Structure formats: structure tokens, C-alpha cells
């Protein structure tokens, strides 16, 4: 595989399905080279066979940070660079906090926060030496908007967004950061076996029950992953790319509503908030 004639070299985690797969296909159409990482790489056999000069499938569990760092170094050693890192691997998890075990909560943070943080930290020295690159963090509308039962999920996405917003302020050597916030898209995220649910407690049926039943909407989500992938490429190639990119009308509406409610609440309590300074 020759990366010299390509536009960019991508490393995409969670590339075997959903947004990761759609992004890999979009990057290939653009003439780029894709290192497609995932746990079940056999799902990528068709893409590798169709584009052997552009796609390489590699096994990676992003919760194993040491393996992720080693993969970054290996890709740079063999291809000379990583132009775009996409931290996409993830899963849905539903459960009230009282239903969620410590093990479940810690695993989700390893998957959605500590793994991406380790990969981002590992790629930055290489991008710094080249004077540029891009890091795409696949967050969610849940990184700004909460719902009962999605507390653990949203907490991991809030953390990833806070880290990335800070990175955009502290990294000044040409690296672009893009936080992607999809709403409901027709991926496998809600499929049986993919959407993880903590053990249900009857006490939370009224609040978390509807969220659990929402998972049965798999296959009816309005969003098109292929259009989402193309939108991400468009944003990355923009002269002034956004820091955050909501995807889907539901994401746009939910985030704008949250901003309006937050502003209204701050203004309602502004006088009390400001009246906390030391008296002169």
C-alpha cells in the first residue's frame, strides 16, 4: 500500500460499522488511505478486497491504551504520517446511576474517554513535527443534551468534549479538532447485542423505562450515516472548520434548546450569582 500518492492517511477506530465504516468509505472515495481499526476486523474484508491499495484493517481494542499507542507509532513508522485520527469506537449504554455498576461506569469511560485521550496524546507529537493534522472526536448530541438512563453515556461524552475544547485552546501548531455530535442515525448502535443495558430496577421504570423502550427504534432512525460522513469531510476541508458539528435536525434542535434554557437560567439567577464577591 502506497500512501505517497494519497491525499491523506486516516486512522479510524470502530471502523467496522456505523459512522466508522461510513467515514472509511468516504475517505476511500476521496482517494485517501485508511487504517481501519476495530475488534472484529473480518467485517472489513469486503472493503479491503475492493481497495487493497487504500485500506488496511487492524485489530484494536481502544480500552487497551498501550496497544493504541503502539498502533499510532507503527502507522507513522510505515506510512510516514497520520493526517486524520478519528476516535469513533463506542457503544450505547442505558441505565440509571443507581442501576449502573462501578465496573460498567469505568469501562464506558475507558472506551469513550481514556482510550481516545491516549490515542490523541500519542498522535500529537507526530502531528506537531509535521505542523498539522486533524483529530475527529465522535461524540454525540448526548455530549450536550441529557436524557434519563443516558447518564453514564453522557458523562463520558461531556468529558471528551471538555478535553477536546481545551485541546483546541492549548494546541497551536496547526492541528484541527472536530467534535461531532450526531443525533439519531441509522447505525447498529441500538441493535440487540450492541446496546448495553444495566440491570433494571422497578423504581426507575417511570423515568428510564421510556429510554429503554426507545432502543427498540433501531432501524427507524432518520439520519443517513453516509451523509454524515460526507458532512464531516466537508467540515474538515473548510477554511475555518467548526469546533463542534451537530449532525441531524434532532441534534441541532436539542442543542439550541439547551443553549436557550441555559441562558435563561443564568440570567434568572444572575443577580444572586454576581452578589458573591467580597465586600470592599
Automatic annotation (TrEMBL):
<dbReference type="InterPro" id="IPR002347">
    <property type="entry name" value="SDR_fam"/>
</dbReference>
<keyword id="KW-0560">Oxidoreductase</keyword>
<comment type="similarity">
    <text>Belongs to the short-chain dehydrogenases/reductases (SDR) family.</text>
</comment>
<dbReference type="InterPro" id="IPR036291">
    <property type="entry name" value="NAD(P)-bd_dom_sf"/>
</dbReference>
<dbReference type="InterPro" id="IPR051911">
    <property type="entry name" value="SDR_oxidoreductase"/>
</dbReference>
<protein>
    <submittedName>
        <fullName>2-(R)-hydroxypropyl-CoM dehydrogenase</fullName>
        <ecNumber>1.1.1.268</ecNumber>
    </submittedName>
</protein>
<dbReference type="GO" id="GO:0050574">
    <property type="term" value="F:2-(R)-hydroxypropyl-CoM dehydrogenase activity"/>
</dbReference>
<dbReference type="InterPro" id="IPR020904">
    <property type="entry name" value="Sc_DH/Rdtase_CS"/>
</dbReference>
<dbReference type="Pfam" id="PF00106">
    <property type="entry name" value="adh_short"/>
</dbReference>
